[in-house]
Amino acid sequence: MVAGREDVTRTLSRATLKKRSIFLSKALGMHTTLESVLSGLARLVTAIAGLALALTDLPALAGEQPELVERGRRIFETVAGIGCKACHGPFAEGKVGPTNRGVNEATIREALAKIGPMQFLREQLGDEDIKRVAAYTEWMGRHLLVKALLKRGRFIPEAVSIYPGTPVQLVIENAGSEPATIAADGIQVASPTIPARDIVSIVWTAPQTESKSTLACSDCKIKDGTLTIEVTKAAKPYTPPPQPKVVAQP
Fold first, then answer.
1. What is the count of structural domains for the chain?
2. Which of 55, 110, 120, 198 has the CA that lies 20 to 30 A from 188?
3. Angle of CA points 206, 212, 215, to nearest 5°
4. Residue 116 in 3-state DSSP?
5. Residue 224 exposure: Cα atoms within 13 Å on the Cβ side
6. Same domain assignment for residues 137 and 148
7. What's the distance, Cα to Cα, between the start and end of the chain in Å?
8. Starting at the edge strand that comes first in sequence, how are the strands of the sheet with 198-205 ordered?
9. Is residue 169 one of the residues assigned to a domain?
């Protein structure tokens, strides 16, 4: 994840800014007040943070509204104390209810109106909440869901094939009783640590060229277990799911 502007700004303490402002004032012969120099440095730090976001996260954010998607994710996981995930699965892959990866706002509104077991959510979800949930489910629909189980240092499955250029949501479940740190070779993502019996979601876009990458648990007792991700044109191209037909239920 890219650090937010406030996070970057906080890394420079006020004391550090004062020291740097005094140095710059003397070195450059600037006749400005301390506060104006501090303000200028703060703007510079903010600009650098924005540049870093633009350079590193543009592919992920292109055409997206990240704040809206994130708010939708929180609602999806928590609404009415159980979240949409209680029926549709933690990543909308389907559970008691069907998958709803890719469903749009109109489909959600129709389901709320026609499906009996969903009626209680009508009082829980405001108009803007529905828009946020739809932003999240549509975002999920644009990403191929790949799930893997990490058990005793080994991945199940051990290999997956992905078509070049595919946006991927890679979900890894740690079935162990200890945290597990995932090391990636060939994938430009941070190395997440998965708490015991928990799940992590890694969002990644496959390169346009064919390649192989591996994921491994760096602190598991068993070291020979890897998940091989092969990016190949032999894989089936990913197509976002169509809108499902909503059938009325009492």
1. 3
2. 198
3. 85
4. helix
5. 0
6. no
7. 43
8. 154-156, 144-151, 167-174, 198-205
9. yes
Q: In what order do the strands lie in the sheet with 193-194?
A: 159-162, 226-231, 211-217, 180-185, 193-194
- What would the pLDDT profile of 54-63 be if each residue is shown by its tens digit? 333 333 434 5
Query: Do 72 and 39 have their domain in common?
Result: no
Range of 52's domain?
A: 5-61
Rounded distance between C-alpha atoms, residue 39 and residue 119, angstroms: 52
* Measured distance CA(202)–CA(170) in Å, rounded: 5
For tokens 């108009």, the residue is 127
Instruction: Give yes or no: residues 166 and 106 share one domain.
Output: no
pLDDT tens digits for range 60-90? 434 568 999 999 999 999 999 999 999 999 9
Q: Which two tokens stand for residue 71?
A: 């708010």
What the block records as the tokens of 197 is 């019996």
Q: Which residue has the tokens 């990240």?
A: 66
- CATH code: domain of residue 84: 1.10.760.10
